[in-house]
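Incident log entry.

Two folding requests arrived from the same account within the same minute. Monitoring flagged them as a possible duplicate submission, but the sequences differ. Recording both here for audit purposes.

Request one:
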Amino acid sequence: MLMNEILNIHLLSPVFSPAFLSAPTSLTLAQESGEVHRSLLEYIAKGGSIGMIIILISLVAIGMIGAQLFRIRRERLAPPELIDDLRALLADGDIDRSIKRCEDEASTSYLSRVVGSGLVRASRSAFGMLELRSSVDEIGQLEVDRLYRLTDGIGLIASVAPMLGLLGTVVGMVGAFDTITLSDGPARPDALAGSISQALITTVLGLVVAIPSTAMYTYLRNRIDHLTTEINEVIDEMIAPLESTQGVSAESSKFTKGPSQGVSKG
């Protein structure tokens, strides 16, 4: 009986009450929640000037990615109506109208620049349409390089962002060691917190910018290669009638020159 009464007294005392038992946990959670709840802008601000530079180049990367996603589409690189018109004109051998159709500003695209410039160069050449394929291949490579320019800018940002984050890490650690050196006694944690936060936050910001930029760089380059390869196959199909016609005319001219030369010699 005596032991039961002692246990009842202890259990009913404030020390063992639910409110008391939960108080330290509530206090700890409150403290943790007070430390965790911080806005994104506050984290960015702790990155200092280097963090702001990383944010700035991330905005540039977003603009480049949006521009490339808008440009690198099949309907913009090779409009369907332009394909139909050029296929019909080149099948009829109408080179002049094909060049004028490619020079139309409303139809400016990868297809119009490659076919139009190739036809102009071949028509001015002494070899005629026999040089059309090599001209188209050369101009097509130049146009692919042109499409790569913004994509290469995205790749540059993907490479520079983590290096800027590393620079911020070094600057932050240097600041932390300077604080320790200049302090009279042991450095206080709050005096070191600012420099250490800058060191870690700039690294995070650099990686946050670099990882998606690298992914988009790879995706856009592969998309350019895929679409231009498909369009080049369409171009080869278009210019095939011109090449065959030019080849037949060249063979017939050789045939007609052969007998005439023989007669003159006789």
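Request two (distinct sequence, not a duplicate):
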Amino acid sequence: MGKTQRTTVLKVALFWGSFWVLLFALRSVPVPMFPTFGTLLVGSVGTLGAVILVRAFLKSESDTFADIRLVWDSGSPRRFLLGSVVGVALMGLMLVVIVTLSGLAVESTPDPNYWNAIGVSMLVLFVLALMEEIVFRSYPLVRLFDAFGVRSSIYCTSLFFALYHGVDPANLLGPGVWGILFGLAAIASRGIALPLGIHCGLNWMQSLFGMKTQFATSLWTIVPGPGEGSVSPEVIGRVLQVVLLVSGVVLVELYIRKHPESATTVDDRFAA
């Protein structure tokens, strides 16, 4: 590992460490209000804090948001919308497979609160996803990509994205796998709009089906069905996560085959 790479690792570690201190402080402050609004407030302040941290690190390097492609451009809404459709479709397909093979059933929520289930959930989940995309797929991903190439940058940010969700091996096949897809989407699209859309679409579908009730009410609930499925939903979920992991690794390698220079460091690219 060269000097530039060591410096990059230290800076990214310091960036993540600073954010975790900020997040710990925010979550330690008692918020005397509704849990959903408290989550929105923490997410909003966390997002602002993440932006300030990125700006501080960039300023120390005489760079700007544009240098790491953390900017709004005319294509951002289109990429976000595309990502949202992809996220909704992926999670919808996974839920269909799990429900069909496990014998579960889907029931409508009695007297659903549409404003809460749709509007509030979209707002809260957007803010939280934006915070996480800035923290993992902006400054850290770009700097690691420049120093180590596409593989190391994606797998490293994915690992810490999993740890951010809790020190649990199961998170490696949950958030960790999604982190691979988010990271590749960010590198391939040169920005966070596409992975942000995918991220929001996934979380929103989970919320609509009662899998994120800590943020909003649901429109549907997955319940035991009249018959017993041949496979438990937990096993089906793990299999789907492994399929996503393999798919993510294959997509990374296909990207490298199409862009062989992405597997090298930025110094090697300039030297070539």
